[in-house]
Amino acid sequence: MRKGTRQGNDFPAMDALAVRAWNVGSHKKRLQRENTLFKNTRSNQSRILAASLAGIMAVALGAAVPAKAAEIVGLITKTNTNPFFVKMKQGAAAAAKKDGVELRSFAGKYDGDNEAQVAAIESLISAGAKGFMLVPSDSRAIVPSVKKARDAGLMVITLDTPLDPITAADATFATDNFKAGQLIGEWANKTMGAKAADAKIAMLDLTVSPVTVDYLRDHGFLKGFGISYTDITKNGSESDKRVIGHDVTTGAEEGGRKAMENLLQKSPDVNLVYTINEPAAAGAYEALKAVGAQGKVMIVSIDGGCPGVKNVKAGIIGATSMQFPLLMAARGVDAITQFAKTGKKPVMPAAGFIDTGATLVTDHPVAGVPSIGTAEALKKCWG
């Protein structure tokens, strides 16, 4: 065979080595490509797995940590029927919605129902409330329950009716009830003029055992009319013969009617009637009307509800002192919400309470006693 020639599939020695080298190199490159592909695949799988685990953890954590529940704020009033407390509840509800808290409301079955208020306080303590507003039915009897709530860390704010002592609560938002009574007493005295010296006054109070709002309004009226007394905490402590007697109404229209009937039997020549509130005044008027004395007897009252203001306009009530329950309740909710966030409590002025105001309403103003007419009062009244 000649050198440099091939026959069939035979290759020279150098050609065979070259072929083997080419095969080895090609195989090595293929392995490198496969290894790179494998690494890329593993990397992608790791990223997908990590993302999946992150999603699972997020869902798990979301399920384990629910959204924080709204703080609970309580409102405990004397009853649910008096328009004053109805408006107070509306004011509290609006403020609670604004502040993002949960309002829980309670009330007694009647004015003076201390047991229902004690039960309401126990319920709020158990519920973990941050605090509550209270219109006490019995300013003294409720104090131990208030202390228990404060010892448990709840903030307690009284509305309208201070506790006895007033310092038993963290704060008080209220009408100056003594001033409210004094305004109608001054108006009555100046309206009667010289006849005030011979007045025959029927006093229609709240309860047999007077709470602060009861005796403060009563004695404020006496002070304004010019009648002295010996003990501000006891209705009937005055000795002035112009006061023909006291009776209780429980702050209700029917109670006012019965109390007026009782006092008319004692002294038919009554010419001036003081009432604890406007529902009692409405009842007193019905009793006077039944004996033909309507229009002959002056009635004064306290509240400023729309029905009462309308009765002033109609001449049924001569004058009333308007108070602002919606404002009291709204400020109470705001204060408890602030306490829940910061732990800070309202600072009380020297008087011991924050005065939410009282305005005399009458269509027969007298010099020296600031007042507004019923047209303006109907724009500000409640109920």
Structure description:
This protein has 383 residues and is an alpha/beta fold. The chain contains eleven helices and twelve strands. Strand 3, helix 4 and strand 4 form a beta-alpha-beta unit. It is elongated, with a radius of gyration of 40 Å.
List keywords for this structure.
383 residues; alpha/beta; Rossmann fold; 2 domains; 6-stranded parallel sheet; 6-stranded mixed sheet; 11 helices
Describe the SSE topology.
Elements: H1 13-64, E1 72-77, H2 83-99, E2 102-107, H3 114-127, E3 131-134, H4 143-151, E4 155-159, E5 171-174, H5 177-192, E6 201-205, H6 212-225, E7 243-248, H7 253-266, E8 272-275, H8 278-290, E9 298-303, H9 306-314, E10 319-322, H10 325-342, E11 354-355, E12 359-361, H11 374-377
Parallel strand pairs: 1-2, 1-3, 3-4, 4-5, 5-11, 6-7, 6-8, 8-9, 9-10
Antiparallel strand pairs: 10-12
Helix pairs in contact: 2-10, 5-6, 7-8
What would you say about this model in short?
By secondary structure, this protein is an alpha/beta fold. The protein is 47% helix and 14% strand. Residues 1-14 and 56-65 have low confidence and may be disordered.
